[in-house]
Write a structure and sequence with these properties.
There is one protein chain. With 153 residues, the chain is mainly alpha-helical. 62% of the residues lie in helices and 11% in strands. The chain has a single domain, classed as Orthogonal Bundle (Arc Repressor Mutant, subunit A). The chain is built from 7 helices and 3 strands.
Length: 153
């Protein structure tokens, strides 16, 4: 028997943290990658964010990308391989440790990074404008605290 007053309806009325987080994530990704596609970056996918969202202009070690993104180092390695093939990053020797490699953005990667940063800023400004009486920075700090607690588990 199908019940309209069950768990699904309650979750729709009072979404839990996981549902809210996924709705935010998927909404941001839908807008981000739709706009990036239109701006000349049709091959970048949400999974590439584990690298492109955390990489420094001067380059970042894969182990640092794994730690920051919460992804396994092997996953990051596969994503870097994809991004090298797509022309967004290169692997270069780390000047501070010749045994290590840096993942360094190319001009195409730098353009994607600049555009994605601007898109996120616009999304955040739009969200903040929806709540003019609320400190949006405090909301982000609260979400960061929750993310940190859950990331360390």
């Amino acid at each position: 028997m199908h019940s309209e007053s069950g768990r699904g309806r309650k979750k729709a009325r009072e979404p839990d943290l996981g549902i809210l987080a996924s709705r935010i994530l998927f909404g941001v990704q839908r807008e981000m990658f739709g706009r990036l596609n239109s701006a000349g970056h049709p091959d970048v996918r949400p999974r590439h964010g584990a690298v492109l969202a955390y990489i420094n202009v001067e380059g970042t070690r894969a182990t640092d990308l794994a730690n920051q993104s919460g992804q396994h180092k092997q996953v990051i390695g596969n994503l870097v391989d994809e991004l090298v093939e797509l022309g967004y990053v290169t692997r270069q020797p780390d000047p501070s440790d010749r045994r290590a490699k840096l993942v360094v953005p190319t001009e195409l990667g730098l353009d994607e990074m600049k555009r994605s940063d601007a898109i996120v800023e616009e999304i955040e400004a739009r969200c903040a404008a929806l709540m003019p009486d609320v400190d949006f920075k405090a909301i982000k700090q609260s979400l960061a605290l929750i993310a940190d607690v859950l990331h360390s588990k």
